[in-house]
Amino acid sequence: MAAVSSVMSLSPATGLTNKTALKRFAVPSYVPSLKRNVDFRVSSMSKVSTNFGDILAFGGPGPERINGRLAMIGFVTAIGVELANGQDVFAQIQNGGIQWFIVTSALLSAASLIPLFKGVRAESKSNGVFSSDAELWNGRFAMLGLIALAVTEYVKGGALV
């Protein structure tokens, strides 16, 4: 409205009518467009990259999913061994836990990467309660739980249970 009144105030000085002044001084780029982008499409069958660098990139589908799966297995195993033997996490690591960690990490990483290299994403296979988002959140909570378990046992000086 302010732009129109300033154009109208200029028109008597230039000798132009209001209609020609608006055509002459109005710039189309100043008017916001309300037109929506009609070409925007989301397709679930989009081509996904199977490049090793893309899969294991910081924002790629591999790292968080693999780390989450390892953390879920690690947290359940740590609690299970602690309940069975009374050993804290640090004692479990000292008593052969490193070898089990390496073997488990290799197997779970390979099992997680094979579908990614074939172009299959977890989002395409998720449904209902067992969704890919639920898996990511469970993995995140397991990572936090494993760290909290280790810190608590370190501060306490022994097993949690």
TrEMBL record:
InterPro entries: Chloroa_b-bind (IPR022796). It comes from the Eukaryota. The keyword Transmembrane applies. It is a multi-pass membrane protein. The keyword Lyase does not apply. Its main location: plastid. Pfam families: Chloroa_b-bind. Keywords: Chloroplast, Membrane, Plastid, Thylakoid, Transmembrane, Transmembrane helix. GO terms for cellular component: chloroplast thylakoid membrane. It is found in: Plastid, Chloroplast thylakoid membrane. Belongs to the ELIP/psbS family. This is Early light-induced protein. It comes from Olea europaea subsp. europaea.
